[in-house]
Write a structure and sequence with these properties.
Helices cover about 40% and strands about 10% of the residues. The chain is an alpha+beta fold. It folds into three domains: about 5-260, no CATH class; about 350-405; about 405-488, no CATH class. The strands form two sheets. The protein has a six-stranded antiparallel β-sheet with strand order 1-2-3-4-5-6. The chain has a five-stranded antiparallel β-sheet with strand order 7-8-9-10-11. A hairpin with a 5-residue loop joins strand 4 and strand 5 (about 145-150). Helix 3 (about 110-120) crosses helix 7, helix 4 (about 155-170) crosses helix 9 (about 245-260) and helix 12 crosses helix 14 (about 380-400). The protein is elongated and about 100 Å long.
Length: about 500
């Protein structure tokens, strides 16, 4: 690749990782993590009573690629990496995707944190990588050694054929792999063929001699160490999926040579005649039913990590906004699936002030409410009144509170006529008109306000300011009666 191509590819990979949520806590790793120093002992690492390593536990990065199917075929062993104090475990987007799969798979996030700490302290020994399995000996702080394995499904021969055909058709795919890169478009093209190269939720299956049935600190530490290996060489991932580097490159070269040979012209151009495609339109199957609506919003990702956040970044506030976004997404999905959705009126986008009031109306924690009061400029008391208005009628009620949308002269003229006939002469309250279409009951802390849609809103004076006292009504008498009811 040229320098410009590399720069473009880096930007593509960075954007792909950001869009897919890979990298919320691993972005501080910008240095080569490999080194010659090793701060923990290899003695009796496999727990078999001697201080030698088994066939797959060597002190060097070795590769065994014998004939396919032979014992030990296509196995690589990497020496133990030095501790990573104060540093992340993944620099590339595919390394972060690997760790994301671990977090999504583990049922107990605390075990993942303990594993991250163990890997950071250098507790993971030499790592053996072979098709479908990674293995290492992981030591507890008291020196107890545990053999830990993580299993990943291998791709079958037919799946590899599809992958190799796809990769051989793109010189960019081959060049990226030779550069030890895993470009997003390679993963996307493979996914289009039904081939998932990167693991997802539930794909990393743990096995450990400590007896845990789910991911434990030992298998989590192993996964964090493998993330460092993946950063340097994506062929490690392909080996886990079933093919080593040498065999994979040989197969790609064989396919590339075959594609370069002259191809005889086909008797008929490939494709379907337009008339045939048009005729088939009437026999296409109907669209599938929409998916069921989730019962609850999705759980947000915890941002509680050992790494300090960047300056100006508040993880707790981000978690609050993420939970709110999930709840809104569920509501929008429910509205979209409703039969009457096509006839629902269009909702304009909220302003920053309106969105702050909306968040406050949900009753957040006091520290969030305080920040919203400052951010909207309403103050604590003003935000309380605004939040109550929002709960009663959303943006329309907030506009009545603020007087930001006065009714038109036509609506105001009709309202005056309605006021004249709303009560019997003996029951009519004394009303004092004021600006912004407001009528205050003389001698009482009750007020009527007219909205731009012609509805009447009751207000009550409380703490020196006017606050909404109930829902709107079509006639002023009903609205005023609602304001006279005692507050809950």
């Amino acid at each position: 690749m040229s320098g410009r191509d590399h720069e473009h590819e880096y930007e593509h990979q960075h954007e792909y990782g950001r869009q897919h949520g890979y990298g919320h806590e691993y972005q501080d790793d910008h240095e080569n993590e490999y080194g010659d120093a090793d701060t923990y002992s290899h003695e009796d690492e496999d727990g078999d009573g001697d201080d030698t390593l088994d066939a797959h536990e060597t002190d060097d990065d070795t590769t065994r690629q014998d004939r396919p199917g032979a014992p030990g075929a296509e196995e690589r062993t990497f020496a133990a990496l030095p501790p990573a104090h104060g540093r992340g475990f993944a620099q590339t987007w595919w390394g972060r995707a690997w760790l994301q799969a671990l977090e999504d798979t583990a049922l107990d996030g605390q075990q993942v944190k303990l594993g991250r700490r163990a890997a950071r302290e250098g507790a993971v020994g030499a790592v053996s990588v072979r098709p479908g399995r990674i293995t290492a000996v992981v030591r507890d702080r008291d020196g107890t050694a545990h053999r830990s394995d993580v299993l990943l499904r291998e791709l079958g021969d037919e799946e590899w054929d599809r992958f190799l055909d796809m990769a051989a058709d793109s010189a960019g795919h081959i060049a990226a792999l030779l550069d030890r890169e895993m470009p997003p478009h390679l993963v996307e093209d493979a996914a289009g063929l039904g081939l998932e190269l990167l693991p997802g939720i539930g794909d990393l299956e743990p096995e450990c001699t400590c007896g845990a049935w789910d991911h434990c600190p030992h298998t989590a530490a192993l996964c964090h160490q493998v993330a460092r290996l993946l950063d340097q060489d994506p062929f490690v991932l392909l080996l886990m999926r079933g093919r080593g580097e040498r065999r994979l490159l040989d197969d790609l070269q064989e396919r590339s040579v075959a594609r370069a040979e002259p191809v005889r012209e086909a008797a008929r151009p490939a494709g379907v005649l337009a008339a045939e495609a048009y005729a088939a339109g009437g026999i296409l199957p109907p669209l599938p039913a929409p998916p069921p609506q989730p019962e609850t919003p999705g759980a947000g990702q915890s941002l509680d990590t050992e790494t300090d956040p960047a300056p100006g970044l508040d993880p707790a506030a981000l978690e609050f906004l993420a939970a709110d976004a999930a709840a809104r997404a569920r509501r929008l999905l429910a509205e979209a699936l409703a039969p009457e959705h096509v006839r629902a009126p269009w909702e304009p986008s909220l302003t920053v002030d309106q969105d702050g009031v909306r968040l406050a109306a949900a009753g957040p924690a006091p520290w969030i409410a305080a920040r919203l009061a400052a951010g909207t400029g309403r103050g604590r008391t003003g935000l309380t009144a605004a939040a109550e208005a929002w709960r009663l009628g959303g943006a329309a009620a907030l506009a009545v509170l603020d007087g930001s949308r006065p009714p038109s002269p036509e609506v105001l003229a009709r309202a005056k006529a309605v006021l004249a006939g709303a009560w019997e002469p003996t029951d009519r309250p004394a009303l004092r008109a004021s600006a912004h279409a407001r009528w205050t009951v003389v001698g009482a802390d009750v007020q009527l306000r007219l909205a731009e849609d012609g509805r009447w809103w009751p207000f009550r004076r409380s703490g020196g300011q006017w606050v909404p006292a109930g829902p709107p009504a079509a006639d002023p008498a009903s609205a005023l009666a609602g304001a006279d009811r005692p507050a809950d």
